[in-house]
Amino acid sequence: MKKLIVLAALALSPVFSAQEMVNKPVQSYQTAQYQAKRKAFVENLLSKMTLDEKIGQLNLPTSGDFTTGQAQSSDIGKKVEQGLVGGLFNIKGAEKIKAVQKVAIEKSRLKIPLIFGMDVIHGYETTFPIPLGLAASWDMNLVQQSARVAAKEASSDGINWTFSPMVDISREPRWGRVSEGSGEDPYLGSEISKNMVYGYQGKDLSAGNTILACVKHFALYGAGEAGRDYNTVDMSHVRMFNEYFPPYKSAVDAGVASVMASFNEVDGVPATGNKWLQTDVLRKLWNFKGFVVTDYTGINEMIEHGMGDLQQVSALALKAGIDMDMVGEGFLTTLKKSLDEGKVTQAEIDMAARRILEAKYDLGLFDDPYRYGDAKLAAKEVYNMENRNIARSAAAQSMVLLKNENQVLPLKKSGTVAVIGPLVNNSLNMAGTWSVATKHAASVSLMQGLQANYGKEVKFLSAKGANIDYDAKLEDIYAAHGKKTDRDNRSKEELLKEAVDVANKADVIVLAIGESAEMSGESSSRTEITIPQSQVDLLNELKKTGKPIAMVLYTGRPLALTNVKDIPDAIVNAWFAGSEAGNAISDVLFGKVNPSGKLPMTFPRSLGQVPIYYNAKNTGRPLSQDKVDKCVYERFRSNYMDECNTPLYPFGYGLSYTKFSYSDMSVSNPNPKGNQTIQAVVTVTNSGNYDGAEVVQLYIRDIVGSITRPVKELKGFQKIFLKKGESKKVVFDITPESLKFYNGELKLDWEPGEFDIMIGTSSDKVRNSKINWTKE
Ligand code: NOJ
């Protein structure tokens, strides 16, 4: 019998208790009383500081991770002693951090504590899926929880500032850093952005187990030309405000304590020296109150951008609104001279120093400079079983089932399974990009996961089958930062033969192919977004065995899978799933977890379609939907002669082992007026054979506007859990807030008229209701 349940509230997360969740953080440091106290403290301190000491607060070197004993003797140690350092980043370990803090507190004149930053991007030692994967979970409790776990681990080990969340919207899969963000959508990106900030910062930044978040890279870093890292960006302000800015603003609205400037230029001025961006938009328009840090040598790089010499670009950055200089020491070495020459003002230097001191005050460091980092606490907090279980669950939730034919998945818990692929026994590549603190050796490889979880019932055989790439030099470049891929020097034929032999002994093949971890991430742009040929050849060879193939895809970006998608029976996109990758993949393959991930970024058919994204404009010559669906070419329409318009897998797409059917969509009022709230309702039924979770997506199209509007925009989603046979009524509240956009004058407002209200299982499969919303 089917049960009908009305679901009004947000996502159901089967995994976590909500107890620790912070939904509306009332940050103590926002009250007037707190601010008056902080002001008195900081102004008093500033009045005692020399110019050098003030400039010193703006200096953020990297440590090179010296050992404990070197803290004092190193060059940085000396600078700390002289008060010429505001913070340090990427030192790992409570004891080491304490030793440096000790130098600041015991040897520097004013005993100003340092802040300690790190790229804690998707977890600390317990590593979660890469951010693009986490985004695919569409589970905001989980997203927040991942940041909470990361903050607890990192803070117990001495870190009180993370360079996360990275929220750069991107429609460019050539760009390796799409792996670090939440994909292409401003709405989903904004939800994730704020939940990451809540998770890191909690309610109280001085709690000792919360840390400063840093939203980055402000701004538009994901829109570099041709997907080449650090490349030029040029876009209209209307696009910036409507499509690229929302996730940064969402972090600011959530109270993010710091912002990192991006490397790229915006309107012809590098973001690091762009006053319009860092002051007019960020502070004046959005009311940001924290501090802005450059990216790594961002000031110095303005010399190469063609903005002047080090003194000029440092002054430009300070005047633009930059407070802290990461690594380059442009501030440290030139600001005094610029002040003497009248190129910067004392007030500008004071303002930057004030903002750094305020952040330190908020962290409680003036009360207790050793508040963060306690080896005993770290031993309990870091990489404990509870955190690993959360990471395992997050990893399974991030996986996207792209295809499942002949009911190959879930696998049967019996017989023999051939586990084949270049990384099946590799732990080092499981965490993916930005895993500074990851316990790599302990990361669970696919074979380890399968053996540990199902080794008693199932016989697993393994073979490498192919190297990541035929080209050994390229494979070296891919692994240049240390994530070795265990290249096998046997010939291609030998590797294939071994794989085929193993496959012939098995009932089913699990073939794990795709990218290695460092094929995405910073400075990892690719001109091809396909699976390397060595691995495609392996797939084709295994196909000849006639055995069913379940393909596990490792990737940090959307790949063009056109040449492989028809070959395996099933494809699970596992991204880079983190510390617990092998366990989580096993959970999904054997059906312990029914996959529910949905793509946060479009997977194109070919690179030629890029940029391709669901929330595109209609153009004046759109191809009719019928022709789009049938992939029919029409002359003088917006389409390709040699390729369909549709992507391979659209935004929001992802299958389940069960089936969800949508019915009875309706809106509560087709003619709303003014500030009314209406409801869009749909019934979702689990009509398949497994319990499972579904992400129900709400899209809206504004039919006529004063500027052209996208064909659809995500405006809401709910992740619901349905038992086999169960139905739920899903209700979305819609207010004029959902209709707002930045118009030609960059004013945020909504315009009356007709709207399509669409609900569905992915961006391309929706049911539609038309409404007409009038102002009064
Ligand atoms: C450069 C990267 O662009 C940025 O994301 C990172 O936080 C810094 N390096 C510090 O490692």
The appropriate CATH architecture of the domain at 392-589 is 3-Layer(aba) Sandwich
Q: Cα-atom Rg, whole angstroms? A: 26 Å
CATH class of the domain at 392-589, named Alpha Beta
Can you give the mean pLDDT?
Answer: 95
In total, the number of strands is 26
- Structure classification: alpha/beta
Helical fraction = 25-40%
Within the largest sheet, what's the order of strands? 12-17-16-15-13-14
Number of helices: 23
Major sheet size, sense and barrel closure: 6 strands, mixed
Q: Name the CATH superfamily assignment of the domain at 392-589.
A: Glycoside hydrolase family 3 C-terminal domain
Flag low-confidence runs.
Answer: 1-19
The span between the termini is 45 Å
The proportion of residues in beta strands is: 15-25%
* List of distinct ligands in this structure: 1-deoxynojirimycin
List keywords for this structure.
Rossmann fold, 26 strands, six-stranded mixed beta sheet, disordered N terminus, signal, Immunoglobulin-like, binds 1-deoxynojirimycin, four-stranded mixed beta sheet, single chain
